Amino acid sequence: MRARVYVTLKPSVFDPQGTTVADALHTLGYASVKDVRQGKFFELDIDAASVGDVRRIAQEVADKLLSNPVIESYRIDVESGVQGQAGEGSR
After folding, report:
1. What is the pLDDT of residues 54-79, one digit of tens each?
2. 1-52 pLDDT, tens per residue?
3. What is the phi/psi pair of residue 28, to 5°?
4. CA of 53: how far to CAs of 15, 30, 47, 61, 83, in Å?
5. How big is the CA angle at 70 (ends 37 and 8), to the nearest 5 degrees?
6. So what's the pLDDT on residue 89?
7. How far apart, in Å, are the Cα atoms of 28 and each of 24, 31, 33?
8. What domains appear along the chain, each with residue ranges and CATH number?
9. Which of 28, 37, 53, 56 has its CA 20 to 30 Å from the CA of residue 79?
10. Half-sphere exposure (CA, 13 Å, Cβ side) for 37?
């Protein structure tokens, strides 16, 4: 099964890369873009017996390695390979 982990800076953390991208977009004429926040995206293929096990492993990996809990939060989506059984979790 596949778990997708989306890691983003917490709203209270300044995002200089996002600010730079927003400024560049404004320069290019995209004035309607009001804010940009950057983040990281990970796809994990996990061999586990259940969606719950995949979610648990992905959460452990995100807590221990993929995110910095002081400044980042994350969301996990699990794709079981069967249409309609995707899940979404958050921390």
Report:
1. 999 999 999 999 999 999 999 999 99
2. 999 999 999 999 999 999 999 999 999 999 999 999 999 999 999 999 999 9
3. -80, 0
4. 33, 43, 9, 12, 18
5. 25
6. 45
7. 6, 8, 11
8. 2-90 (3.30.1280.10)
9. 37
10. 12
pLDDT(87) > 90: no
Task: Provide the token pair at 62.
Answer: 């995100």
Q: Cα–Cα distance between 48 and 79 in angstroms, integer?
A: 12
Task: Give the pLDDT of residue 22.
Answer: 98
pLDDT at 80 (0 to 100): 77
Instruction: Output b/e per residue, 37-62; b: 16+ Cβ within 10 A.
Output: eebeebebeeeeeebeebbebbbebb
